[in-house]
Amino acid sequence: MQTLGVMTLLCCLVAIGGCATTPSELANYGDLVESAQSGREVSPEDLKLAFLATPDFPQRLQRISALEQQALQLLIDEPLKLGAIGTAILDIYYGSLAGHLALTAFYDRVEDETADLHRDWAKRIVATIDASANGTRKLPYPVFSSAEARSYLIASGRSPVGSIYQSDKERPFMMVIASKPTKGPLVNVFFDLGDAYAAVSQQFATTSPGNEFTPGALIGFLAQSNDSAAQAFIGTYLASEDRLDESINWLSSSARSGNIVANLALARVWWTKARRHDDEQARSEAVDLAVENYLRAISAGSDEAMYMLAVLYLRDQLGPDKLHAGIELMEQASALENAQAFIYLGQLYFDGRQIERDLEKTANYFVQAAELDNDYAKLQYARFLMHPDVDRPFERRAYDWLREVAREDNPDAMLVLGNLYARGVYVHRSFRRSLGWFRKAIASAPEDASIVNEVAWTLAVTNLERLRQPSYALEIMTDIMESDLKARQTPAYLDTWAAAHAASGDFARAIDLQIEAVEQARRQEQNAVIDVLQEHLDAFKAGRPVIDPIP
After folding, report:
1. N vs C: which end of the chain shows fewer Cβ within 10 Å?
2. Biggest alpha carbon distance in the chain?
């Protein structure tokens, strides 16, 4: 049996969230510590690698884990208790960021110059973490442990308020921590524990040949050990599998640790349950629990929770007369630079149904979201400027944003660019370039029914003869309708397919498909579109294709 070896490795992971790869030849850890304590220059990275090479490092890590978490809890309010704890941490591992932060706080409080030594070490450890990363998903910070990740944020003036593990093919073991800066919105900071995971996987393969060591197995073990980030991961995964009751159990355990990531997930799960309840009392209780979890996340400064609760208010999902509360909450989220909140407010002022229409505010909100590098906002602003109700010239920044998003292989941006060239808005009219952009959109998303439908409709019914391409429209529409059952049952898509047949001269097939479109609309109670569908059917029966002034 390999049980003991496996448990040792897993306990190691509980302590650090993983282990880092160690080179074959390293300086002796004890010698490096002695040098550091004597004031000689020692690299934090070298010290970490040497520590990992110590024969008893799993045992050391088990001892240090609880101490580091305790130190982080006491750091702000009870620094006088940190002297013994910080010393105990550094006795185990001298490169612990949590340990140096603890002793900095302690010695500052007792006015001892020794604080400067530990402050310097903390700065150097932070600088080492900063050296090759920026905390984004693309460049996550490399850290030694989950405790080091939290210590890094605290040292950077940010307060961790929630966390969750992540795993993908590129990075099998990552941690995302929602952190609250001194000013501004919560920020998700990404940490890479991949080197740690790889080393433990390697050790596991040695001690348990034939058994696979997976991120899922690791996270499951961490969750059983009351790791709130792991509990949030499992709860979120179970929710995605529609195992809502199991999800609630895991997320509730995580939320009790103050993890707002779990609160947000819990709110979504309870809202899903509320929508499914036939019993009014059970539904009401589920709604209350959803709102309660949103409010807990909001109290921690979550702009995402503000946005999501505001949406429920503005859509009358929580009872009537919530318009004012919804707008106020949405504005709070936008003040924290939530791009979705800016976009929602922009659409709200454009629609003019719940609030007086204000195109100036619409433009400002879309621009603010776009300046936060939100691709959807960039598209919305361009579409806004092209709307017939908007008397504003198309702008260079809108065009630049479109090109930028299109370069990221975004088919929606390609569609808008195609429309610009077809209409000659801001650019010189070019049907060749317009068609080129439409074809690029299809090549980018050949299985996206909405993209295919928009291109096919434009090219089948446009009044611009040099842009009309009925054969191509029919080709791409037939491909999607014969391969996508959901598209085949959508009245609008059937309408386009019929129009493409009519534009190609096949009115018999167009009539059959249009009859099907009308029947589907009636079956789905899409009463608003039935009259238009019937008009198109009458045209096909009369041997006339649909011609519209588009784009």
Report:
1. N
2. 96
